[in-house]
TrEMBL record:
<keyword id="KW-0326">Glycosidase</keyword>
<dbReference type="InterPro" id="IPR000933">
    <property type="entry name" value="Glyco_hydro_29"/>
</dbReference>
<keyword id="KW-0378">Hydrolase</keyword>
<dbReference type="InterPro" id="IPR016286">
    <property type="entry name" value="FUC_metazoa-typ"/>
</dbReference>
<dbReference type="GO" id="GO:0016139">
    <property type="term" value="P:glycoside catabolic process"/>
</dbReference>
<dbReference type="InterPro" id="IPR013780">
    <property type="entry name" value="Glyco_hydro_b"/>
</dbReference>
<comment type="function">
    <text>Alpha-L-fucosidase is responsible for hydrolyzing the alpha-1,6-linked fucose joined to the reducing-end N-acetylglucosamine of the carbohydrate moieties of glycoproteins.</text>
</comment>
<dbReference type="InterPro" id="IPR057739">
    <property type="entry name" value="Glyco_hydro_29_N"/>
</dbReference>
<comment type="similarity">
    <text>Belongs to the glycosyl hydrolase 29 family.</text>
</comment>
<keyword id="KW-0732">Signal</keyword>
<feature type="domain" description="Glycoside hydrolase family 29 N-terminal">
    <location>
        <begin position="3"/>
        <end position="391"/>
    </location>
</feature>
<protein>
    <recommendedName>
        <fullName>alpha-L-fucosidase</fullName>
        <ecNumber>3.2.1.51</ecNumber>
    </recommendedName>
</protein>
<dbReference type="GO" id="GO:0004560">
    <property type="term" value="F:alpha-L-fucosidase activity"/>
</dbReference>
<dbReference type="InterPro" id="IPR017853">
    <property type="entry name" value="GH"/>
</dbReference>
<dbReference type="GO" id="GO:0005764">
    <property type="term" value="C:lysosome"/>
</dbReference>
<dbReference type="GO" id="GO:0006004">
    <property type="term" value="P:fucose metabolic process"/>
</dbReference>
<dbReference type="Pfam" id="PF01120">
    <property type="entry name" value="Alpha_L_fucos"/>
</dbReference>
Length: 506
């Protein structure tokens, strides 16, 4: 296949099409694993609640265990007290040998099989998080911590393993924060967001990402926080990546350095901004949307965290979330602290119906490289559901309408593929008949799990689905409505008079 040559300009980069594989993959696995996984400690809770109730030190006590190094710098935090009790005066760097001992038990092939069996189509692993530790034997020397990397090629071994299972492979890199270059404490959201190191860090980060591209050819380049260089350096990097991996994708967390960043690095300016953000958070129930990434010059998809949308989005997006409240392993999270499989599946299907993917995080333990059983059980349930219902997921597109509701209160989401409409009921409906409010279409309908016919009966503005057997034992059933003429589905008069709520499958 011939691919165009990309130039380091906005016009050239914006000509990069979204690869079909990413749009159709729908489900990916995120992996946060590093030295922070050895202590595996953070307060249990919700990030949004932490920002509301303890903003002045939110980034020290938030529930993300991967922030452990920052948290233990303040001796009043729960993490610092835990560290003193368990590890005494050991510096954070002391976790490297403990982590590498755990890596000896790591089986990347076993992980890859787990992810494939869960129904995932791609995997993104953290190559370097905010602690600066590299999960590959980098040749780009860190001037402050020259041995702060894994001698075992974790990135390369996992890339080979997941690709051997037929999955795509992506790399996360923390471009905006590296605590080995800038060691001050981040207390507030502004401290955290504008703590990008200066000096030679931009050159270091650029060299490392280029090394990752040349060594592993990642299908996804997933940056975090921001980009430490200017726009020209970012465009050069994107052009280098697309020319090396034409069907690769980049996310949206690449806001490049500007004069405003330098201004916001000043403490008095950050203090004013903190006051404004705190007020905004208190007045906005949707905190994650309020703190969304700013628009940038180029990206292939956006990455809202723990976020839902009310409407179908025009651009491709990826819901990023943990199974629990932390991304890195947090030993304080018990089964009840993790989201239920039902919640995770509903979030996934909701994203699908609105042009999104789901990137679901696992946080393996540091001491033995094992994924906790609470996380494994939810992955297994994903695999079971997707094995039966994957036709309604993979390769689908949003329909012209994302949502509907049954007469008994279950919510419905729609996806489509060719001349097939998939009606997905979020729940476990009772009985043999389900009435969908303010919806009607014509076609041949079947229950996806067993192929049994479903009768479509118009009842005024609504439509009843009449099944061959009761549905109590089917969780989140999927109904296929197929239109042989690819466009012959009809609206009810009530719907036709209102918003664009129904229409042809195609």
């Amino acid at each position: 296949m011939n691919h165009k040559n990309y130039e380091p300009t906005r016009e050239s980069l914006n000509g990069h099409p979204l690869p079909q594989w990413f749009d159709e993959a729908k489900f990916g696995i995120f992996i946060h694993w590093g030295p922070y996984s050895v202590p595996g400690f953070a307060p249990v809770g919700n990030f949004a609640d932490t920002l509301k109730t303890d903003y002045e030190r939110a980034m020290l006590v938030y529930p993300y265990a991967e922030g452990y190094w920052n948290a233990i710098k303040d001796q009043t935090t729960p993490s610092a007290r835990y560290h003193q009790a368990v590890y005494g005066s050991m510096p954070y760097q002391g976790f490297k040998p403990l982590f590498m001992d755990g890596v000896k038990q790591w089986d990347p092939i076993a992980w890859a099989k787990i992810f494939r069996n869960a129904g995932a189509k791609y995997v993104v692993i953290v190559s370097k998080h905010h602690d600066g530790f590299c999960l590959w034997p980098t040749k780009v020397t860190n001037p402050h911590e020259p041995h702060w990397f894994s001698e075992r090629d974790i990135i390369g071994e996992l890339a080979d393993a997941v690709r051997s299972e037929g999955l795509r492979f992506g790399i996360y890199y923390s471009g905006g924060i590296d605590w080995t270059f800038r060691r001050r404490i981040s207390r507030t959201f502004m401290d955290y967001s504008f703590s990008t190191p200066g000096g030679g860090y931009a050159v270091y980060a650029d060299a490392q990402i280029r090394e990752l591209i040349s060594r592993y050819r990642p299908d996804i380049l997933w940056n975090d926080i921001c980009w430490p260089g200017n726009e020209d350096s970012l465009f050069r990097l994107f052009a280098y990546y697309y020319n090396a991996v034409p069907e690769g994708v980049v996310n949206d967390r690449w806001k490049h350095s500007t004069s405003a960043n330098k201004l916001l690095s000043l403490k008095p300016v950050r203090a004013v901004m903190d006051m404004m953000i705190k007020r905004m958070i208190m007045n906005n129930p949707d905190i994650h949307s309020a703190l969304a990434q700013p628009a940038i010059s180029h990206s292939d998809f956006s990455t809202p965290e723990y976020t839902k949308y009310k409407e179908i989005q025009p651009g491709k997006w990826e819901m990023t979330r943990g199974i629990g409240h932390s991304f890195g392993y947090n030993r304080n999270e018990q089964d009840a602290d993790y989201s239920s499989f039902e919640t995770l599946l509903y979030d996934f299907i909701d994203a699908l119906s609105k042009n999104g993917n789901l990137l679901l995080n696992v946080g393996p333990r540091g001491e033995d490289a094992q994924i906790p059983p609470e996380q494994l059980s939810r992955l297994s349930k994903f695999g079971d559901w997707l094995q039966r219902n994957g036709e309604a997921v993979y390769g689908t597109r949003p329909w012209i309408r994302a949502e509907a509701e049954t007469e008994t209160g279950e919510t419905i989401r729609f996806t489509r593929k060719d001349n097939r409409l998939y009606l997905i009921i979020l729940g476990r409906p009772n009985g043999i008949t389900v009435k969908v409010k303010e919806f009607f279409c014509e076609g041949t309908a079947n229950l996806l799990t067993d192929g049994s016919p479903v009768q479509l009966k118009r009842e005024g503005e609504d439509m009843s689905l009449i099944f061959k057997h009761r549905l109590e034992h089917i969780f989140v059933p999927v109904i296929i409505i197929e239109d042989e003429h690819d466009g012959g589905m009809k609206r009810s008069p009530a719907v036709a008079e209102g918003a664009d709520l129904a229409g042809s499958v195609g």
